[in-house]
Specification:
4-stranded mixed sheet
C-alpha cells in the first residue's frame, strides 16, 4: 500500500478559476489528510500582471511555514490583487502574522524567482497551458476550461494509487 500520493496543483494566484478550485482542494485535503500530498506549483499567466509577484510571495510564505494558508488567502482576494497589486500581498502576510518586511524584501531581491521559473518551465514541458491544472499519477487534468467532475476523477485516481 502506498503511504501517500502526490497531487500537483498548477496555479496562478491571480486566477479566478484557481480561486474556484479551492473548494475542491479543501475537500481533497479533508478526505485524504496526509495520504494526499497536495503541492502548489506556480504557473502565473501573463494576462495576470500580479501573478508572478504573488507566486514569489507564496514561496516566501512557504519559507515562513504558511505556504497553503497564504496561497488560499491571496486567492480569496484575486479581484483586489488585480486592482491594488503588491500591497495586497503584504497585507495578507501581515494578516497571517508573517514577517511582511521579509516579504517586501523577497519581492525586491527576487530570491524566489528561480523556483517560480522552474515550476513554470516544468509546467510548460508537461503540457500545462492554463490554470488550474492537476497532475496525479502521471495524469494531467485541465481545470482551466471546466472543473466539472475533476474532483471525482482525482479521488478515483488517488484511491487506486493508495490501494496499490
Amino acid at each position: 500500500m502506498t503511504d501517500s500520493v502526490i497531487l500537483d496543483v498548477w496555479c496562478g494566484l491571480q486566477c479566478l478559476d484557481c480561486n474556484r478550485a479551492l473548494d475542491d482542494v479543501r475537500a481533497l485535503r479533508a478526505r485524504y489528510g496526509d495520504r494526499l500530498d497536495i503541492r502548489l506549483r506556480h504557473f502565473p499567466l501573463e494576462k495576470h500582471k500580479h501573478a508572478f509577484a504573488a507566486a514569489q510571495a507564496a514561496e516566501e510564505a512557504v519559507e515562513q511555514g504558511q505556504g497553503w494558508p497564504y496561497a488560499e488567502a491571496v486567492l480569496a482576494r484575486t479581484a483586489e490583487l488585480g486592482e491594488r497589486g503588491e500591497p495586497v500581498l503584504l497585507d495578507v502576510a501581515r494578516e497571517l502574522g508573517l514577517d511582511a518586511e521579509e516579504f517586501d524584501t523577497a519581492l525586491i531581491d527576487g530570491r524566489h524567482i528561480l523556483i517560480v521559473d522552474a515550476d513554470q518551465a516544468e509546467g510548460k514541458a508537461i503540457g500545462v497551458t492554463g490554470t488550474p491544472t492537476y497532475v496525479i499519477g502521471g495524469e494531467r487534468l485541465d481545470g482551466g476550461k471546466s472543473q466539472d467532475g475533476l474532483r471525482a476523477r482525482i479521488e478515483e485516481i488517488a484511491d487506486r494509487l493508495l490501494a496499490s
